[in-house]
């Protein structure tokens, strides 16, 4: 047909992506992941809150963590898991964004709920999202534990969080994959499903 190019049915999209993801996972610092799981376990076992946050795709990952861990860990262990996400109340988010600033939508929420000894888990692909950095600064200032999940160079989040899981890749989809997988590793570790 005029004006149309026939695309080969033998195009390969999946294998190159999976190969890049496999290489990234193989290079991931397993000791840093284990350390992050240990801090989550410590905060959980002492009854502290695990508070998650992020923007865009990272917001959905933050919400996924809170959902999986609060239901799944409790169901598997019988011990309550006090997880919450700062991304699931659009009224609160838009009120702070409108009346204060979008850069403060997470820090302002932390002022109401976070206490010393809680864990604030912040996710940012670039590591430089201003609202994420302000939340980490606030959490550090009141004595919370802080865990940063980042990609690319790690940005300011890598420098400021007490614990870091860094997907060292300049590719947002791949770093988001690593962050999602981290959540599933945490789930299985806390539920006693890993060897």
From TrEMBL:
<dbReference type="InterPro" id="IPR046348">
    <property type="entry name" value="SIS_dom_sf"/>
</dbReference>
<dbReference type="GO" id="GO:0097367">
    <property type="term" value="F:carbohydrate derivative binding"/>
</dbReference>
<dbReference type="Pfam" id="PF13580">
    <property type="entry name" value="SIS_2"/>
</dbReference>
<dbReference type="InterPro" id="IPR001347">
    <property type="entry name" value="SIS_dom"/>
</dbReference>
<protein>
    <submittedName>
        <fullName>SIS domain-containing protein</fullName>
    </submittedName>
</protein>
<dbReference type="InterPro" id="IPR050099">
    <property type="entry name" value="SIS_GmhA/DiaA_subfam"/>
</dbReference>
<feature type="domain" description="SIS">
    <location>
        <begin position="36"/>
        <end position="195"/>
    </location>
</feature>
<dbReference type="GO" id="GO:1901135">
    <property type="term" value="P:carbohydrate derivative metabolic process"/>
</dbReference>
<dbReference type="InterPro" id="IPR035461">
    <property type="entry name" value="GmhA/DiaA"/>
</dbReference>
């Amino acid at each position: 047909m005029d004006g149309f190019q026939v695309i080969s049915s033998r195009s390969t999209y999946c294998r190159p992506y999976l190969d890049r993801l496999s290489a990234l996972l193989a290079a991931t610092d397993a000791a840093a992941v284990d350390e992050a799981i240990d801090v989550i376990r410590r905060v959980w076992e002492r009854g502290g809150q695990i508070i998650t946050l992020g923007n865009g795709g990272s917001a959905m990952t933050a919400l996924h963590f809170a959902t999986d861990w609060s239901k799944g860990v409790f169901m598997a262990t019988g011990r309550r898991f006090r997880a919450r996400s700062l991304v699931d109340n659009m009224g609160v988010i838009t009120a702070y964004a409108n009346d204060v600033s979008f850069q403060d939508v997470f820090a302002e929420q932390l002022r109401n709920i976070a206490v010393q000894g809680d864990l604030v888990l912040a996710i940012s692909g670039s590591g430089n999202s201003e609202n994420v950095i302000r939340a980490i600064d606030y959490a550090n200032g009141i004595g919370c534990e802080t865990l940063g999940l980042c990609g690319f160079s790690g940005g300011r989040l890598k420098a400021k969080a007490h614990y870091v899981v860094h997907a060292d890749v300049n590719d947002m989809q791949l770093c988001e994959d690593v962050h999602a997988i981290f959540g599933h590793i945490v789930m299985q570790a806390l539920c006693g499903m890993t060897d």
